[in-house]
UniProtKB/TrEMBL annotation:
Transmembrane segments: 12-45, 57-89
Protein name in UniProt: Cell wall-active antibiotics response protein LiaF
Pfam family membership, one: LiaF-like_C
Keywords for the protein's UniProt record, in alphabetical order: Membrane, Transmembrane, Transmembrane helix
Name of the encoding gene: liaF
Matching InterPro entries: Cell_wall_LiaF, LiaF-like_C, LiaF_C
Domain Cell wall-active antibiotics response LiaF-like C-terminal residues, every copy: 128-241
Amino acid sequence: MFHRLSTDTLNWILIVGVILFVLEMTFFEGGMIIPALFFALLIYVGRKNLKRFWGKLFFWAGLIGIIFSILNMLAIRFFVIATIAIFVIQYSKSKKVAKWVKPYLNTETAQVEQEDLVRKHPFFDHRFFDDQRTDDVAYQWRDVNIHGAFGDRVIDLSNTVLPNDTAVISIRHLVGNIEIHVPYDVEVSIHHSSVIGRAHIFGNYHDRMMNQTLLYQTKNYDTSFPRVKIIIAIFSGDVEVKRI
């Protein structure tokens, strides 16, 4: 059901949930957070003493209590209502429109030749407000090292001269889309990690990323200059790296 939604829709649901959580913490004296912490303490003490009767009593009382506390949070109620609404909308659409099974073709990028890339696998896998963009006029290059919460980020390298060395772009972001434009004569290394979102890297598509890390580099990255190293860590959003 959720895989049919756009990343922007999921981002808005996430943002509203976070706002409700903050409102509950601010205006309702912690809301159900304090009881949830108390029940979590009961679970911890009970688990340490499960061999005793009162330990079992503490554990199960804490478990039941924390479940009800979580379900009574405003943010959780919103997520439940949003899930039900999405299910009803998707079901209604499926009844009105017959499902066609056919190959997917992105017409906007169908004519883009896929670049010869070498994909590398990471050593480890994950376990479990304002928009910004570079200037449209020529600017002096400086390594990018930014972090943000909400909004889109656009970095265009076509209006600058990269050093005859390794340029670095490091972005840590919570919710939003990231777009990076790279000239054709620049070698690229990309290390991208995402909890929710999609990635389009030089013609290579990853439609639904869930707790994933991608590592790509162009064929001559280790021996040629100029080159740029891109490191992106994002919770929810789409990432596109393309030639320009």
